[in-house]
Each structure stands twice: as C-alpha cells, then as structure tokens.
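note to self: dont lose this again. the chain is below, predicted strucutre after it. 215 aa total, dont forget to put it in the shared folder this time
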Amino acid sequence: MKNYNCHWVALLCLSSLSLLGCQTSTVDTAVILSPYENVTTSIAIPDSDGDGVLDDIDECPATPWKVIIDEVGCPIAGIGVGLKMEYRAFFTQGSSELSKEYQLELDKVAEQMNKYDTATMKIEAHISEDEMGQALSALSKNRAMIVKNYLILKHDIKPNRLSTFDCGIRAPIASADTEKGKSMNRRVYGLATEPKDRVAHHNQNDSKSDICVKF
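---
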C-alpha cells in the first residue's frame, strides 16, 4: 500500500514540475517579444542645401550659402542684400491697356523699387504674329510705355531708372499656331534689379533685351 501511494505522489510531483516548466516557457517568450511590439520606424528628411529648411517643404533646394531665405527656403531681398524682381503682363489682341490685375502686380514692383532707390528696371514689350500688318507697328512700344508711365506717374519712379525695349515678334515664348500661344506672346516682361544685387533668384529670368531694340 505504501508503494502504491508513493507512486501517485511521484506522479503528482512530476505533473506539477511539467506545468511549471510550461508556464516558465510562456513567460520567457512574452518577455523576449514585448520590446518589439510597439517599435515604430521613421525616415529622416534631409536638408540638402543646409539652409535649415527640410527638403520636403524646401521650394528652393539649391540655395547658396549666406543668403537670407523665407519660410519655404527661397532667397528674399532684405536690407543690404539687393533686389531682383520679375514682372509680367499680358494684353488682348491689338491693345496696350494694362488690366487691373497687372496694375496691382506693378504696384508691388514699385514698392520694392522705392525701398531700393538705386534699383533700375528693364521693360521689354512684345507682340504676337497676328498683330503684324495691322498698322500696329508702334504697339509693342506703347505697351512698354504704359508700364513705364504707370511707374512714373503713380509711384514717382524717376524716368532714368526705367529702360524700355521694343522686342516686336523676335522673342516668342509660345507657338503662334494656337490662340493661347498668341495671347502669351502679347506681353511685357520687366526685370527690376539693384546694382549691388547679391541674391540668387530661384527662377531663371527670361530677359530678351539682348535681341530687342532699346528706345
């Protein structure tokens, strides 16, 4: 009888040890896995030009060193830095009337030119091919003069700071085969700069004064 009882006691002990072993194994596995359950990864966004604005929002990713920038990483004209500002106006066929929206844009140019009293502006006027042969030979000059006179009369910009160029049809920016292309060619392009300009503008200007006639 004693042997029989001892046999059962031994079996119970072995069963208990087996259960403890399984529980220990489960706990160990949980401990090992838990550090990885909430791990998240992130990709570092670079700042290629080192201007302090990350590439994902940097609209000028190649800004030169020692240039004042705005919140999107583009150069701005600050005190003692210089001025470089572009202006564009477009016209209806056969007209040199400057519409309200282009007057407002010209006001912005004038505001900057009054801040930089040594700044000058080139004013280049163009016509489209469909404006030729309509007794409109003076049309491009009229377009340039409407911009120049606006700056002089409304903003008191000195005439000697403004130079005008007649480009005619020599420098189209769009095909003359479509109405949209023709309307884009009927334009005035202006470039205001300060002589000691040290700002690298992020848009390449499309000045054509080298092939236009100054008047």
